[in-house]
Design brief:
Layout lengths: L3 E2 L3 E3 L7 H7 L15 H18 L4 E5 L4 E10 L10 E7 L8 H16 L4 E7 L3 H9 L3 E2 L5 E2 L12 E8 L6
Antiparallel strand pairs: 1-2, 2-3, 3-4, 4-5, 6-9, 7-9, 8-9
The protein binds coenzyme A.
Coenzyme A (COA) binds next to β5, α3 and α4.
């Protein structure tokens, strides 16, 4: 399983004690705006259980992000296999969810760079994708900062978003090729 460290951050595998702060994060309407709203405890516990299994199988998954200065759980980031079918799958995605108290400091960009290096240099993946609800501007800004690029022809309706949440259905897809920008 994978632990990554940057100047300010550690991304490490899940522990049972992470359920509580992850539940708090997943109860915040601002954080969950593009995920259909706050999630009940049973859902959060199930997400952690599944993530623990997947990180064992895949070596990494969306996993806790720890602020070194305080040791606090401040969000989740990571790479994961896309588990639904779409025109761009099979694919490996990069993703993030951060406590708003820590927005605006470049923390997700910092750990995102570490995950990109890990994905391309240690795992040898050809490409990473990232996707978001079409108007999730903060997430799209992270993708752009990390060098991901957008082709409108890749945009898609997320098959796992229920029809009664139609405003969350349309997604933009961004891609980053291994070696992009290097001569
Ligand atoms: C998406 C999300 C993770 C982005 O968080 P963020 O803090 O904006 O992202 P970053 O860590 O890259 O920080 C960028 C901001 O820090 C600033 N910054 C400060 N120092 C920086 C540095 N060294 N490097 C980069 N940016 C820096 C940038 O200018 C930018 O500020 P701005 O918001 O005023 O434009 C966050 O908004 C979130 O958790 N949203 C809810 C969950 C969600 O929707 N997840 C995505 C689902 S697809």
């Amino acid at each position: 399983m994978t632990t990554l460290e940057t100047r300010r951050l550690i991304s490490r595998p899940w522990q049972q004690a992470d359920v509580e702060p992850f539940f708090a994060l997943s109860s915040d309407p601002e954080v969950m705006r593009f995920f259909g709203g706050p999630q009940p405890r049973e859902t959060v516990e199930a997400v952690v259980k599944t993530a623990m299994e997947r990180q064992r199988d895949f070596g990494v998954w969306f996993q806790p992000l720890i602020l070194k200065e305080t040791g606090a759980f401040i969000g989740i980031t990571g790479i994961a296999k896309v588990l639904f079918e779409a025109p761009f799958t099979p694919a490996v995605e990069i993703g993030w969810r951060l406590d708003p108290a820590h927005w605006g400091q470049g923390l997700v960009t910092e750990i995102g760079r570490a995950f990109i290096d890990y994905a391309f240099m240690e795992r040898g993946f050809d490409e990473l994708v990232s996707f978001a609800v079409h108007d999730n501007e903060r997430s799209i800004a992270v993708m752009k900062r990390l060098g991901f690029t957008h082709d409108r022809g890749d945009d898609f309706d997320h098959p796992r978003v229920p029809d009664d949440l139609s405003h969350l259905k349309r997604h933009v897809l961004y891609r980053l090729r291994n070696g992009a920008g290097k001569g």
